[in-house]
Amino acid sequence: MPKRPKQNSDHAHRHNTPTIDNKAIANHLEALLTPAVFAQQKYYKQLGLRDK
Over the chain, what is the mean pLDDT? Predict the structure, then answer.
């Protein structure tokens, strides 16, 4: 009888715990990412692609 292969730990169900809500970090990330997101949307529109 063949042995059972070991399970890959990457496929294990992980239990994620929520992090502490920090308004300063959230505001900083929003200020950094918002212009990049709008620039990406503008670039897609210039290429004739649709937003997803």
Answer: 82
CA–CA distances in Å: residue 24 to residues 12, 29, 52: 33, 9, 29
Strands annotated E in 1-52 = none
Helices (H) and strands (E) in the chain, counts: 1, 0
CB within 8 Å of 9: residues ≥ 6 apart: none
Q: How far apart are CA 41 and CA 34, in angstroms?
A: 11
0.70 surpassed by pTM: no
Matching residue, tokens 């308004």: 23
33 confidence band (pLDDT: 50, 70, 90): very high
